[in-house]
Amino acid sequence: MLVKSAATALVALMSLTGFAGPSAAANAGEDNARQQAFSFGVIGDIPYGDAEIAKFPARIQDINADSSLDFVAHVGDIKNGSSVCSDEYFEHIRAEFDTFEHPLVYTPGDNEWVDCHSGNNGAYNPLERLDKLREVFFNEPGKTLGETMPLKTQEDLGLPENVRFTKNRVAFSVVNVQGSNNSLLPWTGIGETAVTAEQQAEVDHRTQAVLEQLRDTFRDATRRHDRAVVLMTQADMFDPSLLAAATAHPESVSGFREIVRTVTEETNRFDGPVYLINGDSHVYAENRPLAEGSPWLTVYGQGAADDLQRITVDGSANATNYVRFTVAPNNAAGSAVLSWEKVPFKE
């Protein structure tokens, strides 16, 4: 009787102290691993034109309805290339962004500042438009749009849009890299036939800030033993439609060269997969643009980075879906860390 009573007391004590034996501990570990897994959604080059602007609130609600998402990223171009870059339009999209129920990370696209010199865009000075974008969309540096999620920013360098964060041993870095050769095309819409001094100064400053953030991202990821690095940009630095022109005239992508070189060097040093998610070219793609034998190696004049996986999200008329990325539980490594699928909008 004493033995039985002691055993009963021990079971009761274990229950009170929260210890439920090896089986329960294993189940708790499995639950914790499941909790560590997470998903995020990515869109870009949306909304384009009046019809898509009208549908954009419904698109946002479709994404809001996806309870699996921990955050959403918009990789730039909040308007098409032939509409006015007005303050009113920026404020309208900001109001739409505020309806996201997930944290929203946004990086500007060339359509909303770089190319705004064009007459049908309003013949703006692009740098003035970039200032306005920062005022409207990045008025609280270090916080996401939509629901709040803390971020590290380059606000001290004047680039609050450059952000990074880490979740479940995956490092994320979102940087302002632009189409139109990273903003090195002349502002012909306001009468310029060559790159201006102020334009070049902005490109130089922003590019150096991007390089600094990329290096910091990989350095910290290595120090923390992160499993993967995810980079996000607007620019498609490996746009297949531009390959022939870039092969014939490598200077047409000169604005990307330092960035591609740094991504290559850091990818090769990092002990894990690296993912580059971009918009810009509007057609969904998944490939390894810097793998051995890629023609882009010749264009950029550098060695391979076999572990760089690139994903381009659909945009413009193809923006009928978002891409859901799923990060596997903490015990996954290598290519098993990240998976993705296109999720169609309801209409």
Please, could you describe this protein's structure?
This protein has helices at residues 2-17, 21-36, 49-64, 87-97, 126-137, 179-183, 197-224, 243-248, 257-269, 295-300, and strands at 38-43, 69-74, 103-106, 145-146, 152-154, 159-167, 170-174, 228-233, 274-278, 285-287, 308-312, 321-327, 338-344. The termini are far apart. The protein has 347 residues and is of the alpha/beta class. Helix 3 links the parallel strand 1 (38-43) and strand 2 (69-74). The chain is globular and about 55 Å long. Mean pLDDT is 92; it is low at 1-22. 37% of the residues lie in helices and 20% in strands. The strands form two sheets. The chain has a seven-stranded mixed β-sheet, with helices on one face. Strands 4-3-2-1-12-13 form a six-stranded mixed β-sheet.
Task: Offer a few descriptive terms.
single chain, 347 residues, alpha/beta, seven-stranded mixed β-sheet, 10 helices, 37% helix
